[in-house]
C-alpha cells in the first residue's frame, strides 16, 4: 500500500509558486483570521450606555417632525449626526451652523433630502460683520441639480465703482468700516483689470436661488428679498447603509460621539446589527460559525489555486499569440491622410500633450487616435449626451448643434453633431479635425476627439467652456448680469486678437469670426471656437476662393465682388466684434432703422458724424469716466480701420493686437504708422494714435488738429 502511494506521489511534478500566488495565499490566510475574528466581533456589546428619547422629533416654527440625521431641542445629540444639529430661536426660527456660519432653515424636505437655507446675518439685511464666503461641508452637502446662482457682495468701494456699476448699488455701514459704497454682481467675478481704478475693502460670495437672481436682475425684487429667499442644497448621510440595516432591525439610528461612529439603538441601548439579539449561551453558535467559515475559506483557497493555474496557462498562450500578431497589426495601420501641409510639428507630436483616456475600439481600425486625438464611438457620445437630449443643447455651432455631455471618465464636454453626413460635411468635418489637432493656444478651444468619418453621424468632442459666449453676455440671455465692464471687454478683444493672430501665423483663415464663436470661461478668458469654415492655405497663396459662406453682418464686403477670402477678411469680422464690445448691439438687427440694420454701417456713420457717444453702451460709463471714454474712443478708431471697404486699407491682425495692447497699457504711441491729434475734451487732452486716411474728421465731438497721409498696405 505504501509503495503504491509512493509511486502515485512521484508522478506529480510540483510547479514552483509565483510571488502573485504566494500573495493570494497570504490574503486568504488573513481572510480566515478575519472570519474567526468576526465571530467574536458579533457578540453583543457590554456597554451600559443609555440612549433615550430618540423617538422624539424636532419641531420649530414651520419646520416640523424632523428626525435622523438631525438633532436638536427635544432630540438628544446622540440621536443624529453632530453636523446636523438644529437650534430653535424664539420658538419660530430654525437655524443650523456649518463651517462656523449660521444659516436659517427655510425649508427641510426629508423625503427629497433637500434644504433651503439663508445666511442668518444677511437675512433681511445687506450688511454683515462676517466677511466670509458661504461654504458648506462638501461631504454632506451639494447643490447638484439645484437652481442656484452666485451673488457677490462687494463693500467699501471708491467712486469709480459707482459710475461703472450704477444699477447694482446699495449702502452699508457696519462695525466702523466705511462700507457705504457697495454693489453686487451676479455670477462669477471676472478676472477684471478694472481693479486698477476701482478700490474696494472686502467682498463675499453668497448663493441665491436662480429664480430670485432673475427677478433681481430684472429689478422686480430688492437685494434684501433675494437674500431672504435663500438657496437650495442636497444633504446626505455618510452612514446611510448602516442606518438602513438598523431600520430593518426596527432600531433607531444614532451616533456615538465618543467612539466617532454610528450606533443602532434598540429601546434605550445599542443593539447588534444582525437579525436577532443573541442570548448569553451563544458560544457554541460562534464555534459552529467559525467552523463553517473555515470550511468555506478552504474551498475558496482550492478554487483560487486551480483558477490561477488555468489563468497562468491562458496568459502564456495569449502572449505568444500577441507576439505573432504584432507585425500584422502594424502593417494594417496606415497614417491618416493630410490635405495640406501646415507649419507646425507633425500630429504625432501632439499625442504627447493629450492625456491618455480610455477609449472604445476605433472605427478607424485598431488605432484609438486619429490626427493625434481620441476616437470615440457613436454609442459613447450618445450615452454622454443622454441620447442627444434637446434639453442639453448648448447652441448652434455653425454646421451642427452643440450638446452638453459627460464622458464615462467624468470629463465634461461639448459635443458638436453635424447636421448632414454628406460628402461636403465629411470634408468640413475632417478639415476641422486636422486644423484643431495641429493648433495649441490658450485662447483656442481644445478638441478632445471625434468619431470616425464612417460613423453613422459625424461628432466632434470639445472641452466644455461653462460661461457662454460673448454674444450671450452682450445681447443674449446673460446680458443683464452686469459682468462685462469696460476692461473685461477690452481684455476679451485682446485675447481674441491673440488667437486670430496665431491662426494667421499658422497660415489659417478662420472665416467665421463672430461673438457667437468666442466662448468665455468662468474667469472671462477667451476661447475661440468653431473652425468648421477654416481653411489651410500655403505660404505662396494670398487668398482662398470659396462658395458663399460666413455669417451676415460679419462678411468681408469685398468677398461679394471677388469671392475670395484673406486674412484681412478675418480683420473685417473682428472689427464688427470690436463694435459689438463697444455698443452691446447685435451685428444685424432688423428692428433697427433700415440704415442701421447692419452694425458695421451704423458704426461707420456714427463715427463719421461725430456721434460715437450714441453708439457706446451707456452702462460702460463713457460719459462719466474719462479713462473709459479715452480707451473706448481709441478702440472705436481701430474698429473703423478694420471696417474699411478696401482690404489693403485694413491693418493686419498683428498690428491690431499691438494697438489693443497699447491701449490697455496706456501706451498710445505703441504703433507709429502715422500720428493724428484728436481733441476729445479739455480733461483728457490730445490723444495720439494711428488712424486710417479715410477716417472722419473726429470720432467724438471736436475737430482734427492735423491730417494724415495714406499709408501703404502690407
From TrEMBL:
Q: How does it sit in the membrane?
A: Single-pass type I membrane protein
Instruction: Give the superkingdom in one word.
Output: Eukaryota
Q: Where are the transmembrane segments?
A: 292-311
Quote a single Gene Ontology cellular component term.
Answer: plasma membrane
Identify the enzyme class. Answer: transferase
Domain Protein kinase: start-end pairs:
388-668
Q: Which reaction does it catalyse?
A: L-seryl-[protein] + ATP = O-phospho-L-seryl-[protein] + ADP + H(+); L-threonyl-[protein] + ATP = O-phospho-L-threonyl-[protein] + ADP + H(+)
Q: Which UniProt keywords apply?
A: ATP-binding, Cell membrane, Glycoprotein, Kinase, Membrane, Nucleotide-binding, Phosphoprotein, Receptor, Serine/threonine-protein kinase, Signal, Transferase, Transmembrane, Transmembrane helix
Query: Under what name is this protein listed?
Result: non-specific serine/threonine protein kinase
Name the species this protein comes from. Answer: Abeliophyllum distichum
Q: What is the lineage of its organism?
A: Eukaryota, Viridiplantae, Streptophyta, Embryophyta, Tracheophyta
